[in-house]
Write a structure and sequence with these properties.
The chain is of the alpha/beta class. It contains 8 helices and 14 strands. Helix 4 (about 145) links the parallel strand 10 (about 135-140) and strand 11.
């Protein structure tokens, strides 16, 4: 019998899902600042498989310390390992792909100016395939999706509220300084370009045309954007996201 202790330290402990009577897992400590689980296994197992079996996807692990130094290592009898949460870092290529439950988050990220794909009909396998092939960071609330070994650029979205979800993404990937309003279409993700008022006059409501001269059009779907009375409220929300 292989006896292995795993210490879930700091914020990552909030992700652990364990039952006191679960076969093969004993809780040695379940309070702050860490949760300590003892795994009883018939044979050595990869640390990745062990932490994910209690609800912690590998993308949320930042550091591994103790008798092992990475999630791919085999844990053997007597091992004691500490895992801690992934830390915020500046994402060099902030392109995202949201799973089919995160449509409202996708719209917020586009409003912030970030290239974000989303389609409600894509199953998890398709989301994973597209994320891997395109090099995008996959954002998901699905543990099953995030457990896929080949998915290395990913993040577990924790809040229920879309605005709080966007705040989590901005904080995790240190994006506050890269926000650009009127950068992308919130509907189709197409790039917005500034257009002359005369070229789009037929699309502008008459009352708006009388006082506003600056407009943007989506290169993809042709949707027209302008700084209306609602923009101030949006800017306030965006400020709250990035402050």
């Amino acid at each position: 019998m292989e006896k292995i202790e795993v210490v879930f330290e700091g914020p990552v402990r909030d992700l652990v899902r364990w039952r006191r009577n679960r076969r093969g897992v004993h809780v040695l400590a379940g309070n702050d600042p860490a949760i300590v689980l003892q795994f009883l296994l018939d044979r050595p197992a990869a640390l990745k498989d062990m932490v994910e079996s209690v609800g912690v996807p590998h993308c949320e692990i930042g550091a591994v310390a103790g008798d092992l130094t990475d999630l791919g290592s085999l844990a053997r009898d007597g091992c004691r390992v500490t895992v801690s949460a992934a830390q915020p870092f500046p994402l060099a290529d902030p392109r995202f792909l949201c799973d089919n439950h995160l449509g409202r988050l996708a719209r917020w990220l586009r409003l912030l100016g970030f290239d974000t794909l989303w389609d409600p009909v894509w199953p998890e396998a398709e989301v994973a395939r597209r994320g891997i092939n395109s090099g995008r960071t996959v954002l998901s609330r699905s543990l099953a999706l995030l457990k896929r070994r080949e998915l290395v650029r990913a993040m577990l979205v924790r809040p229920d509220d879309p605005l709080a979800q966007a705040r989590q993404v901005v904080a995790r990937f240190q994006l506050a300084g890269r926000v650009r309003m009127f950068g992308r279409c919130s509907v189709c993700n197409g790039l917005l370009e500034k257009v002359a008022k005369a070229d789009v006059r037929a699309q502008i409501p008459p009352r708006t045309a009388r006082w506003l001269d600056e407009y943007y059009r989506c290169r993809g779907c042709g949707r027209l954007y302008w700084e209306g009375t609602h923009t101030g409220a949006i800017e306030t929300m965006l400020h709250n996201l990035t402050s």
